[in-house]
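Appendix C: a fully annotated inverse folding record. The material below is reproduced so that readers can follow the format used throughout the book. The structure is listed first as tokens, followed by the designed sequence.
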């Protein structure tokens, strides 16, 4: 009996036991679904995060004050003094790189916007910014205009609102432009509506209201604001040099003593992206571990089923041996059966994993993520299927090949 005939015999055996084949394949499919599904979801989430950072641009960095105590050199340091308006304005004037710089401040993260009888939840992010804020932060306008010089110099009560706020207050029935809304007791005229951003941040940027910076300072009153500085340099290649220059300029403005650490922190967009990739790398390891454990259970179940199959087909094995089948051919038949069953389950598991993984990714990224087809994980899934088939089939195959043909023929 040659190898081709052995393959045909194995496939006939699988076709003749359809219920057992389906149940066994489902066990493998569930294991592959967990493996491919988790890894696909992680890849989809990573793509969503990368898209969010691409909105900022790889050549962007921010200067912020740390507002929590932090550890340096084994010692807990006090929080940084807030970056005040003078620091931010001085930096914008003295930074020599010709970068696009925006100065902004979060007035409130729990504001409430009202229009007539409609009002939002008290979770609106009220931001004071300038005319460069939208471009540097990666926002696009759905309708209306950006803040202009006259708005900033006169501290006019105008506002640009996020898409979620526009939908809540105007319900797509009224054009938001030139409508008057009330936020924190002050009336603002809507001059622009932002396009939906969504993404991994949970949609918080769609609940934002942008007002002129000086207007925000007046609105804060006695509240001490801290200002964030975000700069976009002309090219990625010059970012390292620009960040070094920015650190020097800011230390001079903040009068940080020589030998003392910075009283601020510079956050680079590409650094944040790398940190996120490191985190998702650990998630992939964890997801692979969970999938491996599930597949280990599936392989043990398949091993048990194949042992039962050997017992049920003892007489068949005796007949084949009496007709000249060698132990090698007997082993091949059972190994082929185990591998084919695993591959059938693997293909089904990959398709289920693709659907489940992309569904999870889409839910987390609020529909912003693209459909992911992880060819590497799919190939890994098929390789794992073959490995599981070999692992689960080799012992039953060896056991079947060692059966004595006379004793096997007498088996009832």
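Designed amino acids, in order:
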């Amino acid at each position: 009996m040659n190898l081709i005939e052995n393959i045909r015999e194995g496939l006939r055996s699988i076709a003749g036991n359809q219920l057992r084949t389906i149940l066994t394949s489902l066990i493998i499919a569930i294991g592959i679904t967990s493996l491919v599904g988790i890894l696909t979801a992680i890849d989809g989430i990573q793509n969503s995060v990368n898209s969010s950072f691409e909105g900022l641009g790889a050549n962007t960095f921010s200067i912020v004050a740390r507002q929590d105590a932090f550890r340096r050199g084994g010692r807990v340091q006090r929080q940084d003094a807030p970056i005040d308006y003078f620091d931010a304005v001085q930096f914008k004037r003295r930074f020599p790189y010709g970068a696009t710089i925006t100065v902004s401040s979060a007035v409130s993260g729990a504001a409430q916007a009202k229009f007539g009888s409609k009002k939002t939840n008290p979770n609106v992010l009220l931001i004071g910014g300038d005319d460069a804020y939208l471009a540097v932060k990666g926002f696009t306008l759905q309708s209306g205009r950006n803040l202009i010089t006259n708005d900033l110099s006169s501290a006019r009560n105008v506002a640009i609102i996020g898409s979620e706020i526009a939908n809540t207050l105007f319900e797509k029935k009224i054009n938001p432009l030139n409508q008057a809304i009330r936020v924190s007791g002050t009336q603002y005229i809507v001059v622009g509506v932002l396009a939906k951003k969504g993404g991994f941040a949970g949609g918080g940027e769609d609940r934002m209201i942008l007002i002129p910076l000086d207007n925000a300072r007046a609105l804060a009153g006695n509240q001490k604001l801290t200002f964030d500085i975000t700069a976009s340099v002309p090219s990625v290649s010059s970012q390292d040099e620009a960040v070094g220059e920015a650190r020097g300029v800011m230390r001079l403005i903040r009068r940080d003593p020589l030998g003392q650490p910075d009283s601020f922190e510079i956050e680079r967009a590409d650094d944040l992206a790398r940190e996120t990739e490191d985190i998702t790398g650990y998630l992939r390891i964890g997801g692979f571990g969970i999938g491996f454990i599930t597949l280990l259970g599936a392989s043990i179940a398949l091993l048990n089923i194949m042992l039962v199959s050997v017992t049920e087909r003892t007489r068949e094995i005796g007949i084949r041996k009496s007709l000249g089948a060698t132990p090698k051919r007997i082993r091949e038949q059972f190994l082929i059966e185990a591998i084919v069953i695993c591959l059938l389950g693997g293909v089904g598991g990959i398709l289920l994993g693709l659907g489940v993984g992309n569904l999870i990714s889409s839910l987390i990224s609020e529909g912003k993520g693209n459909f992911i087809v992880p060819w590497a994980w799919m190939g890994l899934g098929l390789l794992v299927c073959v490995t599981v088939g070999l692992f689960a089939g080799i012992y039953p195959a060896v056991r079947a090949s060692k059966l004595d043909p006379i004793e096997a023929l007498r088996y009832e």
